[in-house]
Specification:
The complex is a heterotrimer of chains A (144), B (208) and C (368). Chain B has 208 residues and is an alpha/beta fold. Chain B contains six helices and four strands. Chain B has a four-stranded parallel sheet with strand order 1-2-3-4. Chain C contains 15 helices and eight strands. The chains are: A alpha/beta (144), B alpha/beta (208), C alpha+beta (368).
Chain lengths: 144, 208, 368
């Protein structure tokens, strides 16, 4: 059974290892500050053994955008959700985790295509599902 | 048919040109093309000298159509099932499925058409030689289907090409597709040597 | 004397006999050797996620049918599982057994199509497809008996299934399960030791173990590379922990391993169906008591299953109203395609088609 780890306990360990990164945490997820996302990702992969990224998705809550990552450790059979937020409506940007887990390659391109969040450090950020010259980002709440 | 010579050098420029073409399609194709169904109303006047030859040629044309399956989504699998051994489509002479548009008579549009794919559909339709016919199979090809309100779906392929036979269903059973093909046979058999395609609409204008 | 060469772009366009749907590949070739690969998708993008924000939870079920249209009831099961997790609904026993039987039948049907069309690409034009189509018509007859449709069913509901099994379903299913191993033996006899097939697929398109885990692959593609990760064993959902079955694993990770893993999984599915038929309760309710416009509590959830193509997941955010706030679908085939560049570079154009065919993509799932 893949055990979903408790977010609050894990958040304490992460806050010691990478100081200043954890914003808050709840029962199943840890919210990470956007600037230290890459360091936390490397810590998860190299030190804690979470080598399998299964899901990357983005949600538009009207005050902020949130990107959700789900990482799994195959050895210990555990999983945890990581979240990152950005609070600007024009030109939201986050660092990309593609250097650490290549599974995010197409999923981040899709989030850029449909929601408009730019990922810095992505090797080839271009529209995936819609065509060049499409006006706007369809999955935002204010697209008609 | 004009020859388009693109002046492109890199993949990025090709993508931008494709995007401009798709946007121009969205602006121009705002109302459906009228169906070529004038043949239902009028009696076909055959030339007295060539009547038996006309009928023989039309019969032969009806019984040996080469289809081109433009299969995008789920309906394509019911079409393959219709050519299987159980719902035997080859008994009507449609045995060989051509993948090249230059060798085909009928274009079977099965599945949802999006604006990104519409340019490819038009390019393939233009490459087919006369006489040619189009069958729209499935609810998505007729009117957009379940996805009509979406931002990227063409609401019916008759915005872009003229359609002869519509086969409704989601997906239609193979028996329904075979019935649609027999309706197309009824149209083809009315053709003459100088007007085999029967492509006039109700006002008498050419649809192609 | 050295010869000056220049690489050129070749477009394997969206309408092509062997692209399994509307998929476009832009290749950079040096002579006949592949140097770079860029997949271009989006020719079937229908905006299902945006449409789902304006429909009720039950009205989304026909939309999820159209994702992986070769195994459409497994998509329904994944969606219903996610919603039941969010709202805390318990599914009755008989409905669970019906869902398991149907999921395994869909797995057999989908793998038969995958193997058949892979051999189509290898050169055996349509003969294996039509042999396997004969058995697939029997499975489609069973589904026709069950819910009246051949391809896109809309049979699952949140909280169970929509109607009970008819009386002659189980005897027909028993007859099918008894004679199926003989047909799988027939396919193996035709295909498995064929020299042309072995020369074209052994050692071609190898995906190493670490790369497969790093790109997030799942399903038969991951298991053929040697990683033992099957959600039915590692994280059992529904009642999969009551059945006894094996998980086949490949050794090298080439195209032949991906084909052989699928054939072995078909045999294991038959075992599960036999056990489920014996253990199923004879009568009982088939759907829990769920209102027509039901409002789950606020929150978010992630529900996932082992679909025939990989790990299919649904992420649902609810704000307490009758339609979801956000629905996101994780297609396994889009994530598997990340490895195409690693597998294809250095091979020739003919091998490129074979490698793509062994990945078993369905464009309805990639583009949504």
């Amino acid at each position: 059974m893949t055990t979903a780890l408790n977010g609050e306990e894990l958040a304490k360990k992460i806050a010691e290892a990478v100081p200043g990164s954890v914003v808050s945490s709840d029962k199943s997820s840890i919210i990470i500050d956007g600037k230290s996302l890459l360091q936390v990702a490397e810590h998860f992969k190299n030190k804690l053994g979470f080598d399998y990224l299964t899901a990357v998705t983005g949600v538009d809550y009207i005050d902020y955008f949130e990107v959700v990552y789900r990482v799994v450790s195959m050895q210990h059979n555990q999983s945890i959700f990581l979240k990152a937020r950005c609070y600007t409506r024009e030109d939201p940007a986050l660092p990309s985790v593609t250097p650490v887990w290549r599974a995010a390659y197409y999923q981040e391109r899709e989030i850029y295509d449909l929601l408009g969040i730019k990922f810095e450090g992505h090797p080839y950020l271009k529209r995936l599902l819609l065509w060049e010259g499409f006006n706007g980002y369809p999955l935002r709440r204010d697209y008609l | 048919m004009e020859i388009v010579r693109p002046d492109l050098y890199t993949p990025e420029e090709a993508d931008i040109a494709e995007g401009k073409l798709i946007n121009s399609f969205i602006e121009n194709c705002t109302s459906p093309i009228p169906d070529p169904d004038r043949w239902l109303d009028e009696e076909i006047h055959r030339n007295i000298l060539l009547t038996s030859l006309d009928m023989a040629v039309a019969w032969a044309r009806q019984r040996s159509i080469f289809p081109l399956i433009f299969g995008t989504a789920c309906c394509a699998f019911e079409m393959i099932g219709a050519s299987g051994p159980r719902f035997d489509l080859p008994r009507f002479g449609m045995d060989i499925i051509r993948f090249s548009p230059r060798q085909a008579d009928v274009m079977l549009i099965t599945g949802t058409i999006t604006w990104k794919m519409a340019t490819a559909a038009k390019m393939i339709y233009d490459q087919m030689p006369e006489p040619k016919w189009v069958i729209a199979v499935g609810a998505c090809a007729i009117s957009g289907g379940t996805f009509r309100e979406s931002y990227s779906v063409v609401p019916g392929i008759n915005r872009i090409l003229p359609v002869d036979v519509y086969v409704p269903g989601c997906p239609p059973r193979p028996e329904a597709m075979i019935y649609g093909i027999t309706r197309l046979h009824a149209k083809i058999v009315k053709g003459t040597i100088d007007n085999p395609g029967l492509s006039l609409n109700k006002e008498g204008k050419e649809t192609r | 004397m050295p010869v000056k060469t220049e690489s050129f772009y070749l477009n394997v366009g969206p309408q092509h006999p062997s692209t399994h749907g509307v998929f476009r590949l832009r290749l950079t070739l040096d002579g006949e050797v592949v140097v770079d690969v860029e997949p271009i998708v989006g020719y079937l993008h229908r905006g299902i996620e945006k449409l789902a924000e304006t429909r009720t939870y039950t009205q989304i079920i026909p939309l999820t049918d159209r994702l992986d249209y070769l195994a459409s009831m497994t998509d329904n099961v994944a969606y219903c599982l996610a919603v039941e997790k969010l709202a805390g609904i318990k599914v009755p026993e008989r409905a669970e057994y019906i869902r398991i039987i149907i999921s395994e039948l869909m797995r057999i049907s989908s793998h038969m199509m995958a193997v058949g069309f892979y051999l189509n690409d290898c050169g055996a034009f349509f003969t294996p497809v039509l042999y396997m189509w004969r058995e697939r018509e029997k499975i489609l007859d069973l589904f026709d008996m069950l819910c009246g449709q051949r391809l896109l069913y809309n049979y699952m509901r949140v909280g169970g299934v929509s109607q009970d099994l008819p009386d002659d379903f189980l005897p027909a299913l028993k007859k099918f399960v008894d004679e199926m191993p003989k047909y799988i033996g027939e396919y193996n006899q035709l295909i498995k030791d064929n020299e042309i097939f072995l020369a074209r697929s052994k050692g071609v398109g190898i995906l190493p173990k670490e790369t497969a885990v790093n790109i997030g692959a799942s399903g038969p593609v991951l298991r053929a590379s040697g990683v033992k990760w099957d959600l039915r064993k590692m994280d059992p959902y529904s009642i999969y922990d009551r059945f006894d079955f094996d998980v086949p694993i490949g050794e090298v990770g080439d195209c032949y391993d991906r084909y052989w893993v699928r054939v072995l999984e078909m045999m294991q599915s038959l075992r599960i169906i036999e056990q489920a038929m014996k253990q199923m309760p004879q009568e009982g309710p088939v759907i829990a008591d769920v209102p027509q416009f039901f409002r789950p509590p606020k929150g978010e959830t992630y529900g996932y299953i082992e679909a025939p193509k990989g790990n299919l997941g649904f992420y649902i955010v609810s704000d307490g109203s009758i339609a979801p706030y956000r629905l996101h679908i994780f297609p396994p085939t889009l994530i598997n395609i990340t490895a195409l560049k690693d597998m294809m570079v250095g091979w020739k154009v003919a091998d490129m088609i074979i490698i793509f065919g062994s990945m078993d993509v369905v464009l309805g799932e990639i583009d949504r």
